[in-house]
Amino acid sequence: MTIKESHMEGIKAVRECEDVTIENCNIQSSEFGWLSHRMIIKNTELESEYPFFYSSDILLDNFILNGKYSFQYVKNVEIRDSCLDTKDAFWHSKNVTVSNSIVKGEYLGWYSENLKLIRCKIIGTQPLCYAKGLILEDCEMIGCDLAFEYSEVHAVITGSITSVKNPCSGHISADSIGEVILDENQPVDVSCVIEGRSELNKEEIQNSDNCNGNLFNNKDFPVQET
Predict the structure, then answer these.
(1) Does residue 68 belong to any structural domain of this protein?
(2) Region 182-203 average pLDDT
């Protein structure tokens, strides 16, 4: 099915479909693209509350989304040169790559597996928690507090991160980090390297019984223990 140069409305547009191509369209559909597979969408704007629920094998190019609860339980998705304004995006998703895009909204990518963000601008509170196989390459994080909680993460960030809380493992690198928060709920076997490039400070966070492992004491990396 191919749809071009169209305006689409309706609650359940493109539901349980396969092999769909959409180009140069404007869509308003609160449950768009549910349970659909092998979709290519280019140069299109979508307003939707629960788009792409349980769908797979999706390519989005020059795509503008204004939504909520987007891309939940999706698999095998590539998004490039797009703008996503949506809360709770990519929850429980698997194998998603987003490049050269703006991703705005709270609680991004919780419980995701193999989510990869490349040269993206990420905006919003408490992003990227409870994630496995999380990769960020040359991304910006704006207003991102309490990031990476309980996540396995490898992140290279341009600029600052407001705060990082209880990461599980991996490597987080940024120009600066406002605060590192470790509390009694951090995983028992936690091991995460956090690097501030501007001061060339690096520490490995290691759990101990009283949560007093090798923590940051530099002014650029204040640590809050609760």
Answers:
(1) yes
(2) 71
Q: What's the number of domains the chain is made of? A: 1
Neighbours of 212 (CB within 10 A): 12
Which residue segment(s) compose the domain that 27 sits in? Answer: 1-97
**Entry pTM:** 0.86
CB atoms within 10 A of CB 27: 23
Confirm whether 117 is domain-assigned. Answer: no
Mean pLDDT of 143-169: 95
Residue 35, in any domain of the structure: yes
Give a yes or no: residue 3 inside a domain.
Answer: yes
Percent pLDDT > 90 in the chain is 79
